[in-house]
Specification:
Helix content is about 65%, strand content about 0%. The protein is mainly alpha-helical and about 600 residues long. Among the domains are: about 160 residues, no CATH class; about 100 residues, no CATH class; about 150 residues, no CATH class.
């Protein structure tokens, strides 16, 4: 009996050590761990569901059996079940799973299987290894893990030509091709930047960091690993998938910086992890995902520098902001709120450490300015291209020049929201214009924050009920956005765990992004200029203040106020569930 007991204890101890070790590695190195997870999850089929072979369920069954060998003994240990019961239950769990995997082996659409398998495994590990001491980390990891599964499946079901912005095509030669994919192909084949006035070629005006990383990734797969060029290019979606997940990780770190705990942490984290904008961002082959990942990194590092103003922390800000601008110059918008913090800190400590601060600011500029500005300065010197040059667009049906900016921002007629998808002017078979263009920036961003530009009723063939589902999802999103905005106004001035400068910094960043979008919309009167992809960090900043509202509801002594928690929790869970469902359907019907 003692030998059986010793074996059982050793088995349980091994399972605990294995999972705890992995959990510890992820907690200590979340960004590196997430990169490895993204690579492992996508590379066997080059980020395309069409490459999922019938052998894939067999591989997953092997992983399922290994997981059963870790989870079942752990659960048995919790309930003090002695040998040989853990062994019998492990074998039984493996045997029960076998026919399920065999059934899905011959199914054409395997995305649902991938999603269900991932969520079940995450839940099983959570239930088996969750401890009260590590509750916050386990709960947060489960939320982020579920959010990752949605993004993974969306990426697998979305090709580099589906629902993309300005990607053009990948030219299999040294010739130039338009769009972001053309930019990547030029770098891949030529190993240098386009040596001419880049205004002549669509999207070559962007700094090259994202495109260079994609070209290097494609080169490694194609030239080193021997992956054919088509699959190598498709697999580059692993990079935006990783970037979008780093935004979620950074958001978590920001929420924790502001000392959110319990439901006040989980509610904003759920909103961020499942928000549709970060789902469709995960498949973008343009430079948006990396831009926002680095920008949010700069925001987090600024908060960390404010708490501990060391040279190492300010260099981190410089690297994030400089590399963000080397990806897309609009990352420089974060420089305004960052400079605001620098100025306030300088004047607060002018009598004690002004020399130290000036030295740190000099170090910041020494790193950030060359990284962020070398590309536009190169264009200015060689071809006279303005530093803030924006790609010019030809006249198109999406132009809204015929409506004044004032009319656009004040028009809230109900006809604009009869269709929750973005409205675009289109032409029938005779060439006659039909419908109308979206023109109010606020209504446009509320719509495309949920569905982007490309998701509408055509994505749900034979599923008329999906229009109703999407309407509910849209109005839930509007309600949460309104609640977050009101919370930002209230808790900017109400006392919280954060001081006014910290909250002012986040609010300033939020406002700068919104003002920039309205300026962009005014100067470039096109439907595409009113896009939520220019505002994505506002999901995180808004959710942060909503977390403070949840904290007050949780701790309120008044039962009437406390009762308001229920509709908030219901709205967030419903929003996340419907977002998951809509994007799983979209990915499965591509």
């Amino acid at each position: 009996m003692n030998s059986h007991k010793d074996i059982s204890e050793k088995r349980s101890s091994f399972c605990n050590s294995a999972v705890t070790g992995l959990f510890g590695i992820f907690s200590a190195h979340p960004y590196i761990s997430m990169l490895l997870i993204c690579i492992i999850s996508t590379m066997p089929f080059c980020a395309a569901s069409s490459n999922i072979s019938s052998a894939f369920p067999i591989i997953m069954f092997f992983f399922y059996c290994v997981s059963a060998g870790l989870i079942v003994p752990r659960i048995c240990s919790k309930y003090k079940l002695k040998d040989p019961l853990p062994v019998i239950l492990t074998i039984a769990a493996s045997a029960i799973g076998a026919p399920v995997f065999l059934y899905y082996r011959n199914q054409e659409n395997k995305l649902l299987f991938v999603f269900a398998f991932g969520c079940i495994m995450l839940t099983a590990y959570y239930l088996a290894f969750h401890t009260k001491k590590m509750s916050r980390r386990f709960n947060s990891l489960l939320i982020m893990g579920m959010g990752f599964m949605v993004k993974l499946c969306y990426v697998l079901g979305t090709s580099i030509s589906d629902r993309q912005h300005d990607v053009g095509y990948f030219e299999p030669s040294k010739e130039t091709a338009p769009g972001h994919l053309g930019y990547i192909s030029y770098l891949f084949y030529n190993h240098h930047l386009y040596d001419g006035d880049y205004r002549e070629i669509f999207q070559y005006c962007h700094p090259p960091l994202h495109h260079a990383l994609c070209a290097a990734w494609v080169g490694f797969l194609n030239r080193v690993l021997g992956v054919d060029i088509e699959n190598a290019v498709e697999s580059a979606q692993v990079l935006p998938l990783f970037y979008s997940m780093t935004i979620i990780i950074t958001a978590y770190k920001i929420f924790r910086y502001f000392k959110l705990e319990g439901k006040a942490l989980y509610i904003p984290l759920i909103i961020t992890a499942f928000h549709p904008c970060f789902t469709y961002l995960s498949a973008f082959m343009n430079n948006d995902a990396l831009t926002w990942a680095l920008t949010m990194g700069a925001i987090l590092c600024t908060l960390q520098w404010y708490k501990a103003p060391t040279i190492a922390n300010i260099i981190k800000i410089a690297l994030c902001l400089g590399l963000g601008m080397m990806t897309k110059l609009s990352a420089a918008l974060a420089a305004f709120p960052i400079a605001f913090v620098f100025i306030i800190v300088f004047f607060r400590s002018i009598k004690t450490s002004w020399k130290k601060n000036l030295g740190q600011y000099a170090a910041f500029l020494t790193v950030c300015f060359p990284l962020g500005m070398w590309f536009p300065i190169r264009g200015l010197i060689r071809w006279g291209i303005p530093l803030t040059y924006v790609q010019e667009l030809p006249e198109m049906d999406q132009s809204i020049k015929g409506i004044t900016f004032w009319e656009r921002i004040t028009d809230f007629s109900l006809k604009q929201v009869q269709n929750v998808y973005e409205n675009w002017l289109w032409r029938d078979e005779s060439g006659a214009p039909q419908g109308f263009n979206e023109h109010n920036p606020l209504i446009a961003i509320l719509k495309n924050s949920i569905f982007g530009e490309f998701i509408n009723g055509n994505n749900f063939p034979g599923m008329a009920y999906m229009d109703t589902v999407c309407k509910i999802l849209f109005w839930l999103g509007v309600a949460l956005a309104a609640a977050a905005f009101m919370a930002m106004i209230v808790y900017l001035f109400r006392k919280t765990a954060a001081d006014r400068l910290e909250k002012g910094f986040i609010t300033f960043f939020h406002i700068v992004l919104i003002i920039n979008l309205y300026i962009l919309s005014k100067n470039y009167p096109m439907v595409c200029s009113m896009n939520f992809r220019y505002l994505m960090p506002t999901v995180v900043t808004g959710a942060l203040f909503l977390g403070y509202a949840v904290s007050e509801l949780e701790n309120s002594p008044k039962s009437a106020v406390k009762a308001l928690r229920v509709p908030v929790y219901f709205a967030v869970i419903a929003f996340s569930a419907l977002s998951t469902y809509v994007y799983m359907v979209v990915a499965s019907t591509t």
